[in-house]
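Support request, please re-run this one:
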Amino acid sequence: MVDRLANSEANTRRISIVENCFGAAGQPLTIPGRVLIGEGVLTKLCRKKPKARQFFLFNDILVYGNIVIQKKKYNKQHIIPLENVTIDSIQDEGDLRNGWLIKTPTKSFAVYAATATEKSEWMNHINKCVSDLLSKSGKTPSNEHAAVWVPDSEATVCMRCQKAKFTPVNRRHHCRKCGFVVCGPCSEKRFLLPSQSSKPVRICDFCFELLSTGEMAACQPARSDSYSQCPKSPMNDVSDDEDEDSSD
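Re-run finished. Output below.
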């Protein structure tokens, strides 16, 4: 079906509409063989709070952006190559239901659908597209992915030292390796994570120690249905701290 739609006028027209909705600031999306599989609004767990985002699934990329005017205008376009994507279901918790993780080497985050059926359809279509792409390219699925950031609201004190309380003056920071919310003194180190940035990025002292000694394997996610969790430190444990409200 995808091959049949690839060069159809209807598919070309649909992709053109998506391009126009993002305006001049968005990247061109029309290329030979690309097919728009589906679209919809998903709730993305951002740093500050969950927010509605418009998602478009193509046979080779996943695109999302902020909603300015539904069905008419979107901004802050993000394009994710599906070859690098792996997804994992998330267990329902409180008001956050029907969710799954979208994981890539550069960025990972949680999204939630309105219904269980919608979640199932999204996950099935994404998995099918990824499987088809890998089959055609002969590549293997990526086993490296960026940590999912723990939302600011989940931490009133530093998740490493367990002492520093966050205030308007004592700001929250995120370790780019484990995704923990940490205080400034616990995250003064920088380390080069090539999959995330060409420059050294902020990481917590605990991850810095593991990376420096080559023991980072001990800090891999233990569960696929929750945020990336690293072992507690002996104390019981992109740009710098970009705000999801402005840069998503």
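Residues 152-213 form a domain with the Herpes Virus-1 fold (CATH 3.30.40.10). Residues 218-248 have pLDDT under 50 and may be disordered.
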